[in-house]
Amino acid sequence: MNALDYFNARLEATISPMDYLKLAQVDPDKHFLIDVRNGPNHVRNLTIKDAHVIPQQELHNRLHEIPKDKEIIVYCWDVWCNTAAKVAKFLLERGYKVKELTGGIAAWKEMNFPCSDLSQNVNMSDNCGC
């Protein structure tokens, strides 16, 4: 693979926080954002505003919640985490159109973009699955 092919593939498979925020403001119904992070509640209580929380470990049982008619954007912790890439691959294999949010929740928070605090949500599973 040459450099041009690499960067074209990378741009096709990912979206930056800034680009996602702009697109979501223009057409909020086009995308379905999923927080796929695993881990205990106290470390994942902050999520991107309007994200659907479907941890990777619950994905098989909750696949019916993910619409096929929208572009799916998945994110995890940071650039060192590959959970979102694993979920993206899983969803792509099942016919979804998917991109990974680069930098995960860490990049989003670093840019001071809108977040939601889920610490009051009693329905969050505290089973890490790690």
Automatic annotation (TrEMBL):
Protein name from the UniProt record: Rhodanese-like domain-containing protein
Species name: Metabacillus bambusae
Rhodanese domain residues: 27-117
PANTHER family: FAD-DEPENDENT OXIDOREDUCTASE, OXIDOREDUCTASE
PROSITE patterns in the cross-refs: RHODANESE_3
Sections of the chain in a coiled coil: none
UniProt cross-references to Gene3D superfamilies, sorted A to Z: Rhodanese-like domain (3.40.250.10)
